[in-house]
């Protein structure tokens, strides 16, 4: 997290006993943003640190590494049990006295943010950026590569060697409910769906499907020339997201 003040290191434990590496930056006010990163990313990476820095004027920030990522334990379930990782971070924010908690997720993290809010609740607003609305999408070259990484032993080995991401080999059983199948249960917490018209992973149909499945209060931002997730997010966009979130939870 890009700031002169080093983050407070956190070690969290999920309801199913997985150790989660996280960091906390104290901000002004009583709101906290929980940052949920995309597949193979980490809260310690420069892109997430920039996002944390852009959000900090609006509140505190807790970044976490999902299971199987970075310094966290366990294996990635690619959007399924990661809802428990977010729940641990939300609980950590509450313990630190934050009255309002906003979960902001990117790509896989956006899907997790939606599913966590719908299935577990306990948050005051949700932001989903560049997220899939449904599973098993293979309509773009990048997503076909992602599926190869997840589904093939050689792919899992390659991503572990290249990115340090450990993927559970067994796959889903049963298949978890997709984001669009549960999005209607987020309300009355407000939901913001953000998607770029230059996203190379998921076309705009995912954002529209997620938005249409949700209940009010909800907003859909289609961002011109915006690519995918953390790396493409500009400080200006993150600042607008921060302002939206604070306005949404203050109403």
Polypeptide structure, described:
This protein is α/β, with parallel strands linked by helices and 251 residues long. The protein has helices spanning 46-55, 82-95, 108-119, 141-151, 153-163, 179-182, 204-213, 229-232, 235-250, and strands at 8-13, 19-25, 31-36, 60-64, 100-106, 125-129, 191-196, 218-223. Strands 1-2-4-3-5-6-7-8 form an 8-stranded mixed β-sheet, with helices on both faces. Helix 1 crosses helix 9 and helix 4 (141-151) packs across helix 5.
Based on the model shown, name its key terms.
251 residues; alpha/beta; 8-stranded mixed beta sheet; globular
How is the secondary structure organized here?
Blueprint: E1 8-13, E2 19-25, E3 31-36, H1 46-55, E4 60-64, H2 82-95, E5 100-106, H3 108-119, E6 125-129, H4 141-151, H5 153-163, H6 179-182, E7 191-196, H7 204-213, E8 218-223, H8 229-232, H9 235-250
Parallel strand pairs: 3-4, 3-5, 5-6, 6-7, 7-8
Antiparallel strand pairs: 1-2, 2-4
Gist of the model:
This protein is an alpha/beta fold. It contains nine helices and eight strands. Strands 1-2-4-3-5-6-7-8 form an eight-stranded mixed sheet, sandwiched between helices.
């Amino acid at each position: 997290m890009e700031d002169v003040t080093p983050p407070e290191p956190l070690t969290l434990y999920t309801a199913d006993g997985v150790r989660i590496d996280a960091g906390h930056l104290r901000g002004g006010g009583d709101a906290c943003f929980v940052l949920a990163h995309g597949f193979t990313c980490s809260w310690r990476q420069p892109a997430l640190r920039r996002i944390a820095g852009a959000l900090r004027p609006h509140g505190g920030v807790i970044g976490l590494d999902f299971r199987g990522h970075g310094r966290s334990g366990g294996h990635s379930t690619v959007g399924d049990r990661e809802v428990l990782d977010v729940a641990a971070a939300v609980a950590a924010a509450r313990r630190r006295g934050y009255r309002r908690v906003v979960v902001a997720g990117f790509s896989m993290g956006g899907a997790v943010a939606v599913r966590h809010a719908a299935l577990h609740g306990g948050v005051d607003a949700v932001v989903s950026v560049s997220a899939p609305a449904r599973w098993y999408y293979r309509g773009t070259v990048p997503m076909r590569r992602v599926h190869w990484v997840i589904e093939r032993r050689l792919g899992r080995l390659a991503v572990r060697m290249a990115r340090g991401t450990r993927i559970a080999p067994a796959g889903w059983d049963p298949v978890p409910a997709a984001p669009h199948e549960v999005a209607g249960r987020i309300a009355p917490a407000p939901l913001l769906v953000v998607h770029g018209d230059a996203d190379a992973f998921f076309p705009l149909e995912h954002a529209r499907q997620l938005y249409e499945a949700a209940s009010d209060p909800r907003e859909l931002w289609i961002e011109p020339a915006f690519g995918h997730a953390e790396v493409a997010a500009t400080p200006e966009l993150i600042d607008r997201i921060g302002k939206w979130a604070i306005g949404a939870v203050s109403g």
